Amino acid sequence: MPDGVSSNAVSPLTAERLSIAGVDLEVVRRGAGRPVLLLHGLQNIQPDARFLDLLGGHAEIIAPSHPGFGSSSRPADFETVYDLVHLYLALLDSLPHEKVTVIGLSFGGWLAAEIAANSRRLDRLVLVDPLGIKVSDRETPDILDVFNTSPAEVRRRMWHDPARWAPDYDAISDEDLVVRARNWEALCLYGWHPYMYNPQLKRWLGTIKAPTLVVWGASDGLVTPAYGRAYADLIPGARFELIAGAGHHPEIEQAETFAETVARFLAR
Amino acid sequence: MDAWWQCEVPYPYVPQEILDATDSVRASLPSKYCDPKIAADLFEQVIDEFLLCDDLGLNVLAIEHHAGINSLLASNPMLLGILARQTRQVRILTLGTLISLRQDPVRVAEEYATADVISRGRLEIGFVKSGGSEMASANANPINNVERYWEAIDLITKALSHHDGPFSWEGKHYTHRHVNIWPRPWQQPHPRMWSATGDPDTAAEVGRRGLVHVLVLRGPEGTRRAYAAHRKARAEAGLPKVTTDNFAYAAFVYVGDTDEEGLRVGSKLLWFLHTSLKSAPQYSRFLPGSIEPHLAPQVYRSAPRPGATILSANQNAARLTSISVEGAQAQGILFAGNPDTVYRQIMEFYDQVGGFGHLTLIGRSGYMTHAESEKGIRLFANEVLPRLRAIKPVTVD
Predict the structure, then answer these.
(1) What residues make up the domain containing A109?
(2) Of the partner residues B23, B139, B297, the one whose CB lies closest to the CB of residue A178
(3) For chain B, what is the domain count?
(4) Of B27, B280, B289, which has the smallest distance from its Cβ to A188's Cβ?
(5) Is the predicted pLDDT of residue A46 greater than 80, yes or no?
(6) Which residues of A touch B289 (CB under 8 A)?
(7) Nearest CA in chain A to B297
(8) Does residue B312 surpass a pLDDT of 80?
(9) What is the spatial distance between Cα B299 and Cα B309, in angstroms, rounded to a whole number?
């Protein structure tokens, strides 16, 4: 087994560590089967997330926290999406499998799209409400500015059912709040400017060879389904599937439907 | 001790119901609420007040803030240029262009060099870290703001002091391959530099660099702590001790004929705290990087849990928003009364924090009138300033 990739000898709810290109990463692993690199979005993956167990029934999930997120370290000058893309290309190269499926959620969907345009090791690509491109005119933002918009408005637009799913900062633990503050800082560092997209990426989406599924929460007000359809149209042969009753996080709000949709695509 | 007068040119004339309804009087309040005719009158009055300071020998200070009722001085170099030409004798402190928001520090150096030459060497250059709603207004990444701050200072300093043809700068945040500014500054190697900060890490760096260290409305504990961090860092770096001339303090100051008048008019200055600090949570407690992550449990919850002791800049702002006139006086945030009272209050604070060589006066704010402002300037310059001037710099351990 290559350096740093250990076996699943730990409790399923405990994160492992993985060292890639000198960066120490926290990694959540689940399930067995075809290898899937799962790249998280605005927050790192919660080890007890329902969709992880569901997807784990179909595949071996490898879900690192990006540098600066969760408890992953972030070297001082590791500050850009360029760094993240190269880190995950190196991670793919470190895996023993010839082909790997990449699933990217939200911000991680942006990374997944960049990786797919840069690597021939992908056998499937799944983008879930991804960020990363500019579609509309210069005076129409495609992606809700989560940093400069009131938290109440972000909450309303992020979730189909915010009362049920949005985190309550008064109720969650100190540890989780510290992690969220870390995540928030890292996300801002990577995504502030240009805000959550790479102006050049759109040009290269057409070179993606892996069969691609674009999944979208029908109620997503952070990036709308119309943006999602435009995104899918730029990737040759990409399928687009809408999930009802979900906002920006279909994997959380509709875990069963989400997992079935992804499993069906992976089985094709 | 020296003294510097300033007015941030606030714009209080927005209907109260609008201010009550908005979640932020900064960054997002529509500019339709700013009447340019009123703004022109305000600028005219305040520039006249700066010129009165010049007549009376009271130094002047120009700040910068963006997109809010707290200040119309979005462009510090514009006011600086006017002051450089229209004043004739006093020193002019810019405190200052918000350098971590500007794309090109070399351009800032050109502006400062120009103002120094126009004023024939009366410029002093102060740097302010910025933060909060300014990040949204300037599209500036709040993460790495302090790194940009120091790199910009380094580049501005070199641009001002390097006179032997183009040099190249390929830093982390700024690249400029052909730096060669004209005019070079009047003062050699460059005008004296200041930095405003309350946090201990930045204070230590201010100390190591030997900049004049200014604390704004921090009260006795925070001010003493920051000055101490400055001195400690110098001692640890083996640098010589500095005098009180390296330290400055900014407070609301108003002098009336009587204590009653001084306090009645001076308390109008607290409008700045009570009304103009209102800032939406995304620009304050949820601004990325504005707190160390381990403080999130105190800051992110709707009410901090008991036992929280460390005041972040945001929390400091929250505390100031509700401060009373008495509280502001007790905290060394407001010095107001007759000349004797104001002098006594300043010196009590001076003793509490271990001394400082510069008092910067926030002299007009909120609904204070032009006539009230001019009266306060005259009384301060004539009755208080001579006594402060008698206090000479001393070395403090």
Answers:
(1) 16-267
(2) B297
(3) 1
(4) B289
(5) yes
(6) 185, 188-189
(7) A174
(8) no
(9) 12
Residue A6: what pLDDT?
A: 40
Q: Give the C-alpha separation, A95 to B386, whole Å.
A: 76
**pLDDT digits 0-9 by tens, A2-32:** 333 344 444 445 579 999 999 999 999 999 9
Contacts of B288 in chain A (CB under 8 A): 147, 184-185, 187-189
Q: Is A94 within 8 Å of A20 (Cβ atoms)?
A: yes
Which of B384, B366, B275 lies closest to B25 in space, CA to CA? B275
With respect to residue B64, please indicate whether it lies within any of the assigned structural domains.
yes
Calculate what percentage of chain B has a pLDDT beyond 90.
93
Cβ <8 Å between A188 and B143: yes
| Beta carbons of B282 and A149 less than 8 Å apart | yes
pLDDT digit string (tens) for A196-236? 999 999 999 999 999 999 999 999 999 999 999 999 999 99
Residue B340, pLDDT above cutoff 50 = yes
How many Cβ atoms are within 10 Å of B323's Cβ, its own excluded? 19
Question: Does B281 contact A150 at a Cβ distance shorter than 8 Å?
Answer: yes
Q: Classify residue A219 by burial, with Cβ atoms within 10 Å: 0-12, 13-18, 19+.
A: buried
Contacting residues of A for B66, CB less than 8 Å apart: none
Helix (H, G, I), strand (E, B) or coil at A104: strand
Using the beta-carbon criterion (under 8 Å), do A147 and B143 form an inter-chain contact? no
Distance CA A67, CA A73 (A): 5
Task: Tell whether A8 is covered by a domain.
Answer: no
| Distance of residue B299 Cα from the nearest chain A Cα, in angstroms | 10
* pLDDT tens profile A110-136: 999 999 999 999 999 999 999 999 999
Cβ separation of B288 and A188 shorter than 8 Å?
Answer: yes
Average pLDDT, stretch A55-61? 97
Most B CBs within 10 A among A77, A188, A193, hence the mutation to make, goes to A188
Q: Is residue A72 part of a domain?
A: yes
The pLDDT of residue A1 is 35
Is B208 a residue whose pLDDT tops 60? yes
In 3D, which of A222, A218, A226 has the Cα closest to residue A244? Answer: A218
* Entry field: residues in chain B: 397
Domain residues for the domain of B247 are 2-389
pLDDT bin (cut points 50, 70, 90) of residue B302 is confident
The one-letter code for the residue type at A219 is S
A206–chain B nearest CA distance, Å: 31
Contact call for B142 and A187, based on CB within 8 A: no
Would you say residue B396 lies in a domain?
no
Question: Which residues in chain A are contacts of B141 at CB distance < 8 A?
Answer: 188-189, 192-193
Banded model confidence at residue B30, pLDDT cuts 50, 70, 90? very high
What is the domain-level CATH number for residue B25? 3.20.20.30
Count of structural domains, chain A: 1
Is residue B397 situated within a structural domain?
no
Q: What is the CATH number of the domain that holds A159?
A: 3.40.50.1820
CA B342 – CA B257 distance, rounded (Å): 11
> How many separate helices (H) and strands (E) can be counted in chain B?
16, 11
Chain A residue closest in CA terms to B305: A170
Average pLDDT over chain B, rounded to an integer: 95
